[in-house]
Structures are given as structure tokens and as C-alpha cells.
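pasting input
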Amino acid sequence: MSEQDVRLGFDGKFEARKLDIAPGDPPPFDPSRKFRILGTRVPRLDGRAKTTGEARYSIDVRLPGMLYGRILRSPYPAARIAEVDLTAAEKMPGVRAALILREPGSVVRFAGQEIAAIAADSPERADDAVQAIRVRYEPRPFVVDPHAAREESAPLVFEGDTKTKTSAGDMPAAKKPLPRKGNVQGPRASDKGNIEEGFRKADVVVEGTYSTRVQTHSALETHGLVAEWEGDELTVWASTQGITGVRDELAQELSIPASKVRVHCQYMGGGFGAKFGARTEGVAAAKLARKARAPVKLFLDRKEEQLATGNRPSAVQWIKAGATKDGKLTALHLIVHGNGGTNGNTGSSAPLKNIYACDNVKTEEYDVFTNAGPSTAFRAPGHPQGAFALEATMDELAAKLHMDPVEFRRLNDPSEVRRKEFEIGAERIGWKNRDARRATNDPAIRRGVGVGAAVWYNTGGPGYKAAVTVHRDGSAELEHGVQDLGTGSRTMVAIVAAEELGLPLDRVSVRIGDTALPVGPESGGSTTTPSSAPTVRAAAYQAHRKVAEHVARGWKVDASDVSYAEAAFTSRADAARRISWDEACKLLPEEGISATAERAANHDDAWKRFTAGAQFAEVEVDTETGQVRVTRVVAVHDCGLVVNALTTESQIQGGVLQGISFALYEDRVLDRPTGRMVNPNLEQYKILGAKDTPEIEAILVPVYDGINNTHSVGIGEPSTVPTAAAVANAVSHAVGARITKLPITPEVVLEAVDRARGGRS
Amino acid sequence: MSEEPKPGFTRRDLVRGALVGAVTAGAAPALASKGAAPIGPGPAPLTLEVNGETVALSVEPRVVLVEALRERLGFTGTKVVCGRGACGACTVLVDGEAMCSCLMLAHEAAGRKITTIEGLARDGKLSPLQEAFVAADALQCGFCTSGMVMSCHSLLARQAKPSREEIREAVAGNLCRCGTYPHVFEAVERAAGIRTAERETRSLEIASAAPGGPSRLLSDDRVDEALALLPQSEEGLA
């Protein structure tokens, strides 16, 4: 370790700090540093492959003799399996293997749970064979409605113990087992200060109940993998956010060493939190392949994807909040009942605990179990729904205080970055004259503007590796086992390496998406860039230094005497000594030089803060039809020191659009009498499309936080945290009554319009 | 109580049902128009013209075009997402018209000119539309991209200078979960020459009275406006 001075901060205000720099790790970039590539708009390296159809996604893999796997799923939301008979199915044409996934005597808890799997020589024959599997079910009483599930007389989803499944993308779950009564588990509780005292100090108090519905990830590539055995070694091509997690789960489930499993993922059709681990279908594919002695491709269809691959839990949030008459928050109390089907960890308290400053905060999170597909991590778990309730509450308080909602927020915001972001965003959206813009030329159409805040956390961490090899022709090769979900991580690591090596981007080759490479992070929690970028920079830094050392040896000088600028090494002692990068590389050993670096630990003593964002939305609401159209969004985000401004902008647009989709359209509907999903598709499960897309202005505020050597933070999740909140507040502003439910369907709007007119409510 | 499970009604069921009905009645329009004898249920020979090349294969009548393209012929650039015509990921050109290849039987496509995403680049050179998609970053995960490009290609073939509304309309049937739409609009406008200026990397220095040097604000195409607002914001700095 060596102590070094670094400057950290943002917006031209930088403080000097001393940081312990790990051996081999470069110190964080100084704010004055000018970059050649880093931070510019770089078209992604795989753009060509993706626009020509050459990109081979895992679902595109075709192997000689490959079979097609299909899964049989329970049509019942609750049943005991009495018998599973594969005999007839095994005799169907083309069938090569069959497998029971849920043994007789076991119980199914949602419609769509896996029962058995088949591998056949064509997709159609696999379909036929699956229908020939005979299963005897003993149906049981069930409950799919979360309100009904909370009643004492409700059928129990779990008779015995429950186990909450979490993945790399989740928020941390409760460490201790939680109490459970009927179908309600919890609370996971937090209590800061004294909530009663907080309400006593308050001059104004507001209270409200806010509800949101279940949202499915609906990534376009479905879950699945292609499995191929060679002797006792397994190779898979998976659609995954974490190749290492797939490897480890397969090794564990198949009782083979992790060293015998290799996982590839070169291109990946979206995950949004739902694609971690091998999962049931992945393990089934590997087992079918072993049984059939042939490669098996098993990818789910859209219906299966909707039923069984995870979702964002619904939430019913009761909030009570208090503030003094000069606009300081004194108390925040949240009780949330989240419904994640058969899974727990459904809370939404994080925004309330982590955005605004308040001395007295109490949160109680309950999980309500129902006979529905399990929830899983979904882009900023708990946050869009939590932000919706919190930001509505902030608006209610501001109204009661007769304060401007943005000013009220800034007054209570401990983040100087976000206070600045509120200011930039307010200016861009035209916040000051928002009231004057409510009326339009059409008396039925009202305009509204709303705001919401984002928070995310300085995640990313040590333990990852990258290798950089410099060849004798001066080109470089980067190996790092990260995967690219579509976020642009392939391009991101190339930029970091090229910048550090002083090479143009096209002289750096990138190898990712393979567990045989030096280990990279799984992509969850917006940790990819903050984990990968510093690792890759360290490897490139060390490789470059090794080339310099080679030059120094040739000159018979100390390595510290060699400096590098403008693609050439020079000697500080002897100005005549100069050698270009290319010439220097020609003198390297035949194999070139390589450096493998490990990511250093985070600098806990850095300029510490959460990642901040602020979004503003403008909407037009038809008060006669209840239709809402989002016309404009301004998204102002802290992205640390951005690596690629172009793909970062893309990702912010994506976060905003998913947020609008959550706010206005998405709703998984379960049929109460049968317990089945009635919209397990993409035409009745409505997601936002081209015609629903507003103008989006993305503004990045660079922050030099020094937590890692590239000041990197992730943007995937923060960019979707506040959108629904801002849209809902904008609709409330337009109609003049509080929106308390998502999605904001015409029915919800018209009910609010009625309330605003003082009619029935 | 016992019951045989019926897995859900899938696209393949739909197609199979339609085909069985059509074949037994001898009334499948595409097949009947050629005067062909009823075929199936086993594999039947078929000739397809894909990207200007003629290929022969043998598939069951129930096999849909996208599956023949992907799993039989290896044109995996075309994607399946919903399998029922709701998302546009499987869009190909059939006789120049953008169509969902998941809703068409492979045998129905016999004798028609099929263009897939693999057929747009010429001699390894991207079409201007493809180039614009890359430059504007009109793709993220890329899984909707093939269909999106095909729909936009079809649009530009019939309307050289489409309006923003026409672009929206053209891709209204192409769902993207990553949210690439704004950049897709931009890409089409670039390819059509409507938006000529390349958006450069914009980085601007914010003058700041605070010691320690400048910081940067990166924005998109409203940098000048953003710049204009910043001095007045200084006073509000905490």
C-alpha cells in the first residue's frame, strides 16, 4: 500500500484526499485528466454483428445432432403430484430422453411450475411428446389474490418452512428467519430515531396508501441454454447475467467439479435481473443431454417466460410522513405488503431510507405469499415502487406546506450532487411555469409536470481479474470473463484498456463471456462497470508498465527513468533516447508480455456518497378518456466518470422507458377462479412501444468519487428508479388529484379526475 | 381426481390446428393456389428463396417460416420472441413486404422471395440503414434489432424521407425491452439523410469559481441550451 494524494468531488469543486493505493493499482484519475476515448460517444463494438444478424446469441447455437428440450408445467396453481408417467412420451417419435423434475408426492405452488422435461429431435416433436406425459394431480385450494391471501381463512401457500430465494441482482435479504402468520411473513423492520417523537415535532402530517402491480421482466430472449457433454465435461451456452453463477449451479446440481463446466455467453437478449444461475430449465437441459448423449437446446417460450421466470413483486404501501412548517422532514413511516407469489424479499423501503434526510424513520416490510410465480430481482428491486410512494408523499407534504415541490426536496436532500441535478432538471423541463402550462388548447387535455429522485449505491467490489497481453505488433488483447447483457460492457472494457494503453480502440481485441477467462463480475446491482472497469484498467496499467520496463532494460536505465507520451517512450535522463510504442513492442519476447491484475478493494475513505439522480416528466392527460401520454422526460444522473457517453445515454433512455411502461401499462393478471395468468404473452401483457416513447433528454453529471481507480458507478438501475414516480406526480399535477395506483390506466385517471371535481370517489 | 395436463395453447398448436383443418378441407390458400396435392403430416420437400439463393429442405407442413429459417437453414439472425405476431422480432421481407415469419408456414413461403437480416449487407458492406443503427446506437441487447432493421428497411423502401410519425408507425409493431426507440428514430433519420450532422461527442467545460479546475457535463443535442442555463444556476449551488 502507498498513500497518495488524489482530488475528488464534482462540479469543479474538488477536495484533496489521501488514499491508500494497492500495489499494482493506478490511483483514481485526476479530475484534470484529458481522455482520448474514455467518456466520448463510442458506437458499440458489436454493433455490426447485431445489425447483420451475425451475432450468435445462446439461443442461436446449433450443434450437430442437437436435440430440443421442452418442459411440462403444472396447469394447477396448487396440487399434490400423485403420479408422473413418462412411458407414453418416451415412445413418441423422435424422443431421446425424458426426465421427471418434480417427483410424485411433491407439491406445486403455482400454475406453470415445472413437472417433467423431454428432449426430441425437433421442436415440434418435443411439443408432441410433452403432451403425452401423463400426470395425476390432486388439486388443492389456492389463493392468487394478495388481499385475499392476507385473510385468516385463506388457503396456505406454504404449510412448512419457506425459503426466500435471492440472486446476485437482489437487495440483501433478511439474515434471520422472519416470523410468519398464515401467508404473511415479516416484518423486516428498521427503526431509526423515534417515530412518535418525529410526528410530535411535525407541523404537517400526511398519510396515504399506494399500490403497484406485478411487472414481468419480459426480456426478449427467453431463459434457457444449450448443453453439450464431452466425456465428463460440460459446455453450455446460456442466456445469463452471470456465467460464473451458471457454472456453479450446474456443478452443484450435477455433482461435478466446477472445473468441468464451461459457460459461454457472447450475446445476450436482455435480463433485467431475472437471469442468474442455471435455474430449473438449465439443469434440466444438462441432464437431458447427459441422458440422451447428445447436445440439447432448451429455451422457454414466451408463455413459460411470463409464468415462471420471475417478476417485480406488487406492493401496497402505507406511508405517513411529517414535516415542520419550515419544510424539514421529521418523520417517515412505511408499512408495505409485497406480493412476490411464492417468494419473499418483496420490500420497497430502500428509497425512503436512503434518499431524503430524516431523523425518525420506521419501516416494516411484509411478504404476502400467493400461488403465483416467484418474484426475483428486477432492475432496482423495490425501488420504482418505493420511489412512487415516497415521491407522492413528498408532493403531498409540499402541497400542505405551500412549498414548491422541488424546493422542498432540495431542502431535505443530503446529496449535493442530487441537489444540483434537481436544479439542472427543473431548468430543462421548465418547472417554474409548469402551472401555467396545465391548460392546453383542447379543454379536455391537461398538462402536468412531475419530479422524482433516484438513489443507488456504490457497489462493485474486489475479487475480479483481467489479463492484458501486448503483442509484438503493438496490438493488445484483453481477457475478462464479464458478459454483455446489451449494456455495452464489451465496448466499455475495450475503451478502458485502450485508454490506459494509449492505443486506438481498434488495436485492442476483447474476449469476454467465457468462464475459461479470468473471472469477471456477474451483472447485477449495477455493479458491472464499477467492478470491471477498475480491474481492466489495472491490468492495462501493469501491461503498459511491463513494456516500459522492457524498454528500460534495453536502455540499461531504471524503469522510473522511462516516461510515455504520444505513443512513444522517452528517457528522462537522456533526451535523445526515444522509441515509439510499435518499435518498442517489436523488441518484446515472442509471446509478447502479459499482465493479470486483480481488482483492488474499494477505497472506503474516498468521497463517499450514494449515486444520485433526478428525473422530471411532462405528461398530457385526456380527462375525458383517461388516456395519459408522456411527452417529455429529463433525466439527470450521476454516472461517476462515464466510460461511454453513447451507450450510457442509451441505457438511461431504456431505464426511463421501462419506468414509463411500469407507470402506465404493465400488469400481470391472474384469474382468481383458476389461478392462471390470463395475459402470458406480449399483446395483452402490454409493454411500452415506439408510439408511447417521449422525447428523452439524458444529462450526465460527472462525479469523481475515488471509490475505484476509474470513478465508475453503474447506471442501469438508478435510471429506472424515479421514472414512474415522476410520471405519477405529473399526472397528479395535470388532473389536480393524487394518483395512488400503478399502472395509471384510464380507469385510475378518471377516478382521480372525479375526485378533483369533488364528485364520487 | 385425475386429469391429464394440457400445456398451454401455443403458436404451434394454433398453426397445427389451422393446418390440419386446411389440409383436410383442401383449402389452404397458399397451397391450393399452386394446385398442390395435400401434404403432410410428415416432412415434405420444399424450396425456398432466401436472400437471393435457392435452398431445398424438407419440413413438416406445420413448421413455421421462422423455424425453418433458424433451425433448419441456420439464418439465426431472425429472432423468435413472442411466437404470435405481437412483437415483430421475427420480421422478414416476403416479396419485399415486412411480415412476421412466426405467423407464416414455411410451405406458404415457397416461390416467394424472402429477405432476412443476413441479406441486407452487400459484399460485407453494411447498408446505410445498418450503419446508421450502429452509429446512433439504435440497439442495446440487439434481440429486437433484426426485426427493427427489417421494418425500417421496408419503410425506407416505400418512403425515402419519412416523418417522425411515419417512423413510429413503421416500428409500432416492433417491441424493444431495452428502450432503443429514441435511437432507432435517430438512426432512420440519419439513414434517410434527414438528420445529416453527426452528433459528436459533446463535452463542455462548466466555468466554475470553485478552485480545483473544471468538471464536465455531458449532454446530448441540447448542449448549448444547457450551457445557457448553468451560470444562473450557480447561485443555487449548495
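fyi Residues 163 and 189 of chain B are 8 Å apart (CA to CA).
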